[in-house]
Amino acid sequence: MRTTAAVARAAREPFTVEEVDLGGPGPDEVLVEIAGVGLCHTDIAARDGIYGLPYPLVLGHEGSGTVAAVGPAVTDLAIGDPVVLSFASCGGCVTCSAGRPAYCERFTEFNYIGSRPDGSATMTQPGGAMHGHFFGQSSFATHALAPRRSVVRVTTELATGLLGPLGCGIQTGAGAVMNSMDVRAGTRLVVLGGGPVGLAAVMAGAIRGCSAIVVVEPHADRRAFALTVGATAVVDPAEGPLADGLRAVVPQGADYLFDTTGRVEVISAALGVAAANATLGLVGVPQDFSVELPLNIVRAMQLGLTVKGIVEGDSDPQVFIPELLQYHREGRFPFDTMIRTYPLSDINAAVEAQHRGEVVKVVLLPGR
Q1: pLDDT tens digits, 262-316
Q2: 182 and 53, same structural domain?
Q3: Does residue 241 fall inside a structural domain?
Q4: Helix (H, G, I), strand (E, B) or coil at 351
Q5: Which residues pair with 7 in a beta bridge?
Q6: Which CATH number characterizes residue 252's domain?
Q7: Is the pTM value of this prediction over 0.90?
Q8: Which family does it belong to (predicted)?
Q9: Nearest to 149 by CA among 59, 30, 35
C-alpha cells in the first residue's frame, strides 16, 4: 500500500515528506493507521547518524492509532482497536521471559538495524529499499507495521493521537521512578533535565509521594511547567554552581538523582548532593558514546551509592502503559498537558521549535 512518510535522506539534513510503499503485515505483525506520533530526541539523533543506520530511512518510535489489519497469527487484536506502539523485543530470551523486555538480548537487532531482524524491508520506493522498522515501527508515516509484542491495546478518554509518547519517552521517565529506582514515599528526588522524560519522572515522583522533587532545567518555561505537575523546587543551572543551587533546596541531600541530560559535568555536580544510600539513575544519552562518568570510589563506598543504567524505564509496555493511563484517569498523571501537536508535514518546524525549548513535547499528526 502507498503511505506518506517523513524520510531522512542524510545526516543533519531536514526530513522530506514523500510517498513510500508499505508491505502487508507478516504472520505476527499488525498494520496500524497512525493517528499521532511523538517526536523524540532519539529520532533526531538517529537522523543525524549517531546510531549508524542506513539512508534513506523512516524513523518514528512513539506511534499510536488504530489497527487496520493483522497477520494470521494475531488473534487478540481486531480492526479498529486503539493502540499504542512501543519498542520491539524477541519474547524468547532470558530477560524477555522474565518480564523485562527492555533488556532483550536481541534489542539492537529488533530496533536499530533499519529492517526486520531477518533483514527484510517493510518499506520500498521505486528504485530501491527504504530502510525502517525503527523500534519495530517507523511511525513517522500515515501507516506503520509493528510486531504484535510492540502493540498495546488501550482504553482511554484521550484522543488516540496523543498517546504515542507513552510508548517510549513517557514510560521511560515514569518507569525510571516507579520501576527502575522504585522511589519510596517521603524521599527526595532530583531530576536533571525538564524535558518530556524528566517531567514524566516528576509526575511519577508526585504519585510516589516524594517529599521533595527538584528539577534542574535551563529553560524558564520548562521550570515553570515543572512546578505545575509536581516539582517542589526548580534550579536554573546558569545561576551558579549546580551543587550549591541544589543544596539550597535539598539541604539534607537527594535520595534519588535521575539524569536525562547525558552531560558528565551535570551528573558530577549533582552527585555532590547525594545523600547516604542514594541512587543515581541514568537515561540521558551523550553525543559521544565513548564518554565515561568519573566516580570517586571511596565516596561511592561511603555513601552506599547505587548507579543504575535504565532502558525504557524497566517497563513491560503491555502492563505499564495501561497503568499510566489509569493514573491519568485519576488525575494524577497529566502527561497530555505537555504536548503540542503539529502536522506531520511540518516536522522540520516542529524539530526546531522543540530544539529551541518553545514546546516540551511534540506530537505529529499524519492526518493533517
Answers
A1: 999 999 999 999 999 999 999 999 988 999 999 999 999 999 999 999 999 999 9
A2: no
A3: yes
A4: helix
A5: 16, 58
A6: 3.40.50.720
A7: yes
A8: Belongs to the zinc-containing alcohol dehydrogenase family.
A9: 30
